[in-house]
Write a structure and sequence with these properties.
By secondary structure, this protein is of the alpha+beta class. Helices cover about 25% and strands about 25% of the residues. The protein binds one RNA strand through strand 14 and helix 14.
Amino acid sequence: MRLSQFHLATVKEVPADAEIASHQLMLRAGMIRKLASGLYTWSPLGLRVLRKVENVVREEMNRAGAIEMLMPTIQPRELWEETGRWQKFGPQLLKIKDRKEQEFCYAPTAEEVVTDYARNELNSYKQLPVNFYQIQTKFRDEIRPRFGVMRAREFLMKDAYSFHLGQESLAETYQAMYDAYSRIFTRLGLKFRAVQADTGAIGGNASHEFQVLADSGEDAIVFSDGSDYAANVEKAEALAPATSRPAPGATMERVDTPVQKTIAEVSAFLGVAPAQCVKTLLVKGRDGLVALCLRGDHELNEVKAGKLAELPDEVVLASAAEILAATGARPGFIGPAGLPAAIPVIVDRSAAVLADFVCGGNADGTHQTGANWERDARMTRIDDIRQVVEGDPSPDGHGTLHLARGIEVGHVFQLGGKYAEALGATVLDDQGKAQVMLMGCYGIGISRIVAAAIEQRHDDAGIIWPEAMAPWRVAVCVINPKGNPDIATAGESLYQELAARGIETVLDDRGLRPGAMFADMELIGIPHRVVVSERGLAAGTLEYRARHEAESRAVTRDELLALLG
RNA sequence: CGGGGUAUAGCUCAGUCUGGUAGAGCGUUGCGUUUGGGACGCAAAAGUCGGGGGUUCGAAUCCCUCUGCCCCGACCA
């Protein structure tokens, strides 16, 4: 590509509404432009990168035996009613009407449509297993779109759905997808981790997320230093402490804490470590309020809490008014000792081994010291309800856990029979009997990968693309071609030769001054830069610099060709 | 959904408090000089000041209202 024939639209100034590096750089490089909240136009430059990612994904999906197809983005209400998701998906589902007032949604995912296709097209076990995939636009009406294409409302996703007669076959394809995903992210040059993920309300047997490691990531993940255990923090189990609860050593005493409400305030005021306090959260249960007790230095894991039988899937904290009505005290002074008998008390494993602890006094302005379980405070049940923290033992018994931030770019999931059952997708088995198919689903956020890669790979000058994602591998920059026609000729000939060898090259023939040209090529992250100049012509060399290196060096034409392979 | 902020030229922003003919930098166009790290000079084009309503002799500026966008919160017991 000759840059004079392309549309490059870089900007010097950092856009005002971009917070994180990838968003800023994508705007500055002119890869995307915002149309409205969560909606982005991909420029010619941006699209080149997006297509690179798409093609790697497509190649590896095909290699893993998946079959590409394409489903509509607009889908009829009736189908979504069959699975109950027309209501259940909530406000994230964008609903629209056509001229006949028929209702549709813009697809946030395609289980319904693919399963409808499968129930019509698949009749026999001989057709299984099969794995359909598409690379298609999705729309999710996010509460708060942010970070550019990282969390956009409209985005490009690869979604695959596999169909099976038995669990064993599902597990095989699941593993094949897991392996394909690992190859994809490796080929794309990303630092990533596959982590165990929560299977959520859908149930199912197994689920892994593929997380690109980046400090700006919205997800927290944990991994062990003594094994290959890795999980989303939502899923990671906090083991019960190895030590058992000491016998009570103190008597319980009420102390005045007139304005101290938070654990930090109370522990500072009383001179007691947060780990020796019990914090009590009152949440709305399925049937009245429920108390959740945690060690003062621990946080509630809402996903774990949502699985408790007493609580709805979505954990909601009780309001100040509800707490006052139930306990006679305001938030900040609630504790397990002396709570009304109607409130179940679910105690985290770590909080359960405390003795002589500090907790709220269930009366405004007071806390209790020297409190003890059983003697002073009743426990309905002990369970794992906290978030794991740095240094916790790994749930598999090997090593300790470390925390990291990640960007979820892929998710593989064994769905089981959920959708096939709801939609009546069956095949005849070898006995001639109808069997509900089992399903797996496997997603990759194509557009998000572009942003995630930049998060991981950039410097002050701009993007540093991995070779597999770069819009072009090589940039040929000609200096003052108008002043010296030999330079223009040499640049053109080098460009032709690289192109003839199948090396994707961009020739910067815009005639800009060197500084502006270099700044652009660095901003848009081209991995290899070759400068053709008067100096070089005189010496018979070219000047080469890799994007990730600080210095350039003189090379001959042959050396350059060898270097670029 | 709640809270906060913001809306002025293509972009980044000043001007608003204290009402009086619309500003800068970057970018764009033309001419000239320049050509190894975002060049310089001269000239030029470009804004219904987010929309609507009100107050006033006069509104970017004050008041009301609507809308867009951004941020924060959904961890406080």
